[in-house]
Hints:
By secondary structure, the protein is an alpha+beta fold. The protein contains four helices and nine strands; from the N terminus they run βααββββαββββα. Strand 6 and strand 7 form a beta hairpin.
Amino acid sequence: MFNKDPTFREVQKFRQFWVSSLVLIPAVVTLYGAYQQLFLGKPFGSNPASDNTMVAITIIFGFLFPLFIFSMKLVTEVRSNGVYVRFFPFHFSFKKFGYADIASYKAVHYSALRDYGGWGIRYGRNGKAYNISGNDGIMLEFTNGKHLLIGSQRVHEFLMALDQNARTA
Length: 169
């Protein structure tokens, strides 16, 4: 029986300043506008929304959108029977990539914007990518010719765990 305990585990979250700014600035403006309009009775802006619309906007952009962005995380595990990836909240369980399906793997340096059009679950000219930040990762090539890039802040440890587990699989 395979040992299911990971020999490598990495959890990455969006923690870049620019991401926080893109999320928190609209949230703060929305909360300020809601406070002005709903609690002080001063219409927010030159063409204010109705109170019901302001409540809906506040719930969405003041609370739900920041909660959604800040709850995102990429979890990567290397186990004795394969590589497991989970991009929460899009994956409720791990996606398993068994060693029998992996033809090769290597550490790569890439540009998230140029090669994949950004961060998250992306598709580019080199195949699919799961990435949160940085520009280093592991490229898996599968026996069917497809590729998967998994971004990592700990590429060398990831590669060593793959070497250790893929040989014994």
